[in-house]
Automatic annotation (TrEMBL):
PANTHER family: UPF0237 PROTEIN MJ1558 (PTHR34875:SF6)
Domain of life according to the entry: Bacteria
Family annotation (SUPFAM superfamilies): ACT-like
Signal peptide, first to last residue: none
UniProt-listed PROSITE patterns: ACT
Entries under InterPro entries matching the protein: ACT-like_dom_sf (IPR045865), ACT_dom (IPR002912), GcvR (IPR016867), UPF0237/GcvR_regulator (IPR050990)
BP terms from Gene Ontology: regulation of DNA-templated transcription
Gene: gcvR
Organism taxonomic ancestry: Bacteria, Bacillati, Actinomycetota, Actinomycetes, Micrococcales
Residue ranges of every copy of the ACT domain listed in the record: 5-79, 91-170
Pfam families given in the database record: ACT_4, ACT_6
Name assigned to this protein: Glycine cleavage system transcriptional repressor
Annotated CDD domains: ACT_GcvR_2
Length: 170
């Protein structure tokens, strides 16, 4: 089996997911994992598809034809996921007043400790009682066995104080 990673983006409208799913199915692919969302009128996402090696080229060609029809911007990458079997998963939640640089600061700490971000979801919303905007993030990161979790916690606590957000680890 070949694993294809599809990245999709385009103006949001009904039928985008169905068009991609139809092509995947028509070429005997299996839609395995995906993260898709509409953000500010743009539809974007990442899709993992597995397909038998003999159908891979045909599927990739058909997907590129969707792009050529102006349906969406599409990139197809062949690969196989590499994971550290000994790594544990850490969930990090961030909440605070919105300001620029929050994602940069937190992702730099995670990178410095060699954590790999598997999933990142962020949102800003109006702060109901206090006024202004709140920033909220949920991060799922893979932590190699070699990481000093106490040092990671200290660095995240330091950043939380500096940028005035609450960071919780689970």
């Amino acid at each position: 089996m070949t694993t294809l990673i599809l990245t999709v983006a385009g103006a949001d409208r009904p039928g985008l997911v169905a068009a991609v799913a139809d092509v995947v199915d028509a070429h005997r692919g299996n839609w395995e994992n995906s993260s898709l969302a509409e953000l500010a009128g743009t539809f974007a996402g990442v899709i993992e598809v597995s397909v038998a090696a003999e159908h891979s080229e045909g599927l990739q060609t058909a997907l590129r034809e969707l792009q050529g029809q102006g349906l969406l911007t599409l990139a197809v990458l062949a690969g196989s996921p590499a994971t550290d079997a000994e790594a544990e998963v850490l969930e990090i939640r961030v909440l605070g007043n919105d300001r620029s640089g929050i994602v940069r600061e937190i992702s730099n700490v995670l990178s410095a400790h060699e954590l790999s971000i598997e999933e990142l979801a962020t949102e800003t919303r109006d702060a109901a009682m206090a006024g202004g905007r709140l920033f909220e993030a949920s991060v799922i990161a893979r932590v190699p066995a070699s990481v000093d979790l106490d040092a990671l916690r200290r660095d995240l606590e330091r950043i939380a104080t500096e940028i005035q957000v609450d960071i919780t680890l689970a």
